[in-house]
């Protein structure tokens, strides 16, 4: 099997946790790393450094074209030389490349949105909603990380073919440890959609003195990062900045719980990483965390700073509860190990190629 992967928005090679590089890069790295057992994979990204071999069967092909049509032409050129069996595009901008490439390639096309603009609860972009609709209607299969999101897409666009395959986690990198800690943890890009202000307000509402470790975003960042620092002035918040993914397990193991205060979260990889690390998760119940965390690996509440503060305080006081939720979280996370998830993709790819 030869697979053409398109990641026009960001390269999976760039460090994750600031700017536009987040969960999608981790998904692309982890998934295709595992799928390389079964397939040859070319990942098309923007850049000028040519082709980088990431293992025996994975190549990152850097294309020096910003124009999505020209970018698609590079893919077509490669296809003429090596013939791909399937194309999988990630995020709407790669979907635009897919729209250009599809009529010439004539191979099955899968698309993962990562963020579904029409389902976002804040800052919607009308143009992007329309483009995403065109992509969903033109591709052969939309892959969504949760059943809830897949159903929402289906009810909005009944003709679109959509299936749910969850994202995964590396359960050998993220492992459980004793949880006698007091501080709480946030991990993610410092972006307005991540709702960090809810968490800062929650710190103000809490009766007990709990410190927050905030991982993500580069200290050099201006804009949102500086605003968050100003908003948190005088509170016990440790701004760690961006941490390499292979160093993150340390932060999960030194915390009592992970808090995910996002306005919108299609899946929330960080929740799964915390669960694999045996840490309970606090977040909002309308987000993708509902399907991973559920009601027994953490506390999910209605969106708001006070409800967030309440959940954090319950878990801070309840050592036993934290332990119990941590054990359940780890058990659940094992079912999401990337090796299982890659197998689901293998079957899906094979089926659609056969058809
Ligand atoms: N991450 C990281 N270093 C950081 C901050 C975040 O490696 O400093 C990783 C985090 O572990 C997770 C991903 O970035 O794997 C964020 O994914 P998530 O689904 O939570 O959010 P997204 O970025 O997709 O909105």
Can you describe this structure?
The chain is α/β, with parallel strands linked by helices and 355 residues long. It has two domains: 2-168 and 338-354, 3-Layer(aba) Sandwich (Rossmann fold), CATH 3.40.50; 184-334, Rossmann fold, CATH 3.40.50.2000. 41% of the residues lie in helices and 17% in strands. It contains 13 helices and 14 strands. It has helices at residues 23-35, 68-82, 92-105, 126-138, 147-156, 196-205, 224-231, 249-253, 269-276, 289-292, 305-317, 319-334, 338-354; strands at 2-6, 40-46, 51-53, 58-63, 86-90, 109-112, 141-144, 162-164, 184-187, 212-215, 237-241, 257-260, 281-284, 298-301. The strands form two sheets. The chain has an eight-stranded mixed β-sheet, sandwiched between helices. Strands 11-10-9-12-13-14 form a six-stranded parallel β-sheet, with helices on both faces. α4 (126-138) links the parallel β6 (109-112) and β7. α1 crosses α13, α3 (92-105) packs parallel to α4 (126-138) and α9 (269-276) packs across α12 (319-334). The longest helix is centred in the C-terminal third of the chain and has 17 residues, at 338-354. It starts with a strand and ends with a helix. The structure holds uridine-5'-diphosphate. Residues 16-17, 22-24, 26, 187-189, 215-216, 242-243, 245, 248, 267-270, 273 line the site of uridine-5'-diphosphate.
């Amino acid at each position: 099997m030869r697979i053409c992967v398109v990641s026009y928005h960001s390269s999976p090679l760039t460090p994750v946790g600031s700017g536009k590089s987040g969960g999608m890069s981790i998904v692309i790295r982890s998934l295709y790393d595992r799928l390389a057992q079964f397939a040859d994979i070319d990942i098309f990204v923007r850049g000028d450094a040519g082709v980088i071999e990431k293992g025996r069967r994975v190549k990152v092909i850097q294309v020096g074209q910003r124009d999505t049509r020209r970018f698609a032409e590079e893919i077509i050129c490669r296809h003429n030389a090596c013939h791909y069996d399937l194309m999988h595009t990630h995020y709407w901008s790669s979907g635009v490349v897919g729209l250009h490439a599809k009529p010439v390639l004539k191979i099955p096309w899968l698309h993962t949105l990562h963020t579904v603009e029409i389902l976002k609860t804040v800052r919607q972009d009308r143009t992007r909603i329309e483009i995403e609709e065109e992509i969903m209607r033109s591709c052969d299969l939309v892959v969504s990380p949760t059943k809830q999101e897949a159903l929402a897409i289906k009810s909005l666009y009944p003709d679109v073919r959509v299936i749910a395959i969850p994202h995964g986690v590396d359960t050998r990198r993220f492992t459980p440890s004793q949880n006698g800690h007091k501080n709480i943890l946030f991990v993610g890009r410092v972006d307005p959609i991540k709702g960090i202000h809810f968490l800062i307000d929650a710190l103000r509402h809490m009766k007990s003195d709990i410190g927050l470790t905030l991982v993500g975003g580069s200290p050099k960042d201006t804009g949102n990062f500086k605003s968050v620092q100003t908003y948190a002035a005088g509170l016990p918040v440790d701004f760690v900045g961006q941490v390499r993914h292979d160093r993150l397990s340390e932060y999960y193991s030194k915390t009592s719980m992970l808090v995910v205060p996002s306005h919108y979260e299609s899946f929330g990889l960080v929740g799964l990483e915390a669960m694999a690390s045996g840490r309970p998760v606090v977040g909002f119940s309308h987000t993708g965390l509902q399907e991973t965390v559920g009601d027994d690996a953490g506390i999910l509440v209605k969106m708001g700073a006070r409800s967030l503060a309440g959940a954090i305080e319950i878990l801070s006081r309840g050592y036993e509860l934290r332990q119990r939720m941590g054990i359940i979280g780890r058990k659940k996370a094992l079912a999401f190990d990337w090796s299982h998830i890659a197998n689901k993709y293998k079957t899906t790819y094979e089926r659609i190629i056969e058809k």
